Amino acid sequence: MRIKDFNLSKLFNNNRFLMVFSLIAAILIWLFVSVEKSTDITRTLTNVPVQVDYARLQENFGLVPFGNSNYTVDIKVSGKRYNVDNEQELLEELVVSANTGKVNSVGTYSLPITVESSNDRAAYTIDSWSLQSVDVFFDYPKEKEFALTADLQTEDALVAEGYIAGELVYGESTTVRVSGPESEVSKITSVVARASIDAPLTANTSLDATLVAVTRDGSVPNYISFNRASNVAHITVPVYKKAKLPASVSFSGTPSAYVDQLPFTVTVEPASAEFGVSESRLDGIDSFEIAKIPFSSLTAGTNVIEIKASELTGGIVVNGPEKFTVTIVADGMKTVTVAAPVSLDFPNVPDGMSAKTESLHFEEITLVGPAETLDTLNLDDLVLVADLSTVPEGTTGTVAVPVTVTGEDYWSYGEYIASVQLQ
Length: 423
What we know:
Blueprint: H1 8-12, H2 15-36, E1 41-49, E2 51-52, H3 54-61, E3 64-66, E4 72-79, H4 81-84, H5 87-93, E5 94-98, E6 107-117, E7 124-129, E8 133-139, E9 141-154, E10 163-165, E11 169-170, E12 175-181, H6 182-185, E13 188-197, E14 205-215, E15 225-226, E16 232-237, E17 239-252, E18 265-269, E19 272-277, H7 279-282, E20 288-294, E21 301-308, E22 316-317, E23 323-330, E24 333-339, E25 344-345, E26 355-360, E27 364-370, H8 371-375, E28 384-386, E29 397-404, E30 411-413, E31 416-422
């Protein structure tokens, strides 16, 4: 079959073809004008991070930035709409950096910011950016530890007349570690916990004190931080009321025969002192108990026990002795040393648990009591007592427990330990 010769002239004389061709040509021309000849638009990219090569400075010089080290800029770009519409693509291509080339020692440096495109054929223009440079302080990092002291500022006395303040109690560690630039940390001579008190105190008071670094020149150090969750130290000021009271002692592990009447004489020297006691407690006491003495520390004859005033609990000594001397004379008593009993009793076993003797760390035990009692004592009746009330809750396995022997009118003298299996 023979194909007819194609005649372009005849084709353009065809009105239908000419109409279609004209429509397509018009659309192409409109697209060309709209895209290629349209006016450029400007787009602003906000909070674009500035890249700074801090790692190089630390590696080469040991310098690190202090203060604000993260910066952002707003960048204006312009171009055809289809070239600047994709924000994510622009952010991937733009390289925003601060030049650290001149940083080589301690000081504040102005780092120039440059914005470039990683696309060599980018069809847009970078017009401007909001920051031309950033000031960054560089120094060597340093840490130093200080003992924390309180700086309680008052217009009058810390406590009211007739009261005395005890040793301050800190809610956290009494030391604090300061971190920051070497040039600033080196100025610090001490760290204080500073708080203001409006009126003299008459009761225990808790304070939120602000940590303050004190410098030799009185300046405020910059860029430092403390090893605390916050710059607040929690301090309690114990406040005691002064009172002249007799000094007394009590006893623990007392044999039943001596609960109402002790078998010895007790003297305390000095017999009284001025004490500081909380006002609420003071109403219910007529003497100050300086110690609770276990019977197991007493032997026949004269016992002399020294109690340091600094170790008292429940109050303090005001302008008084540094120690109290307790003399206990146990006349009419004797001591005997016998083989340790085999039987071991366990009062206060934790709920749901059992206890059994694993081993005794001693072979003999010394007893103290009236001669007539000890001379007729049936050794088979002796029972060691291992009180488990002091064992921490949840403890299992082998624990070391102090043991004693306590009869109706005699007791064991000295310290004895048994290994007990808890399960």
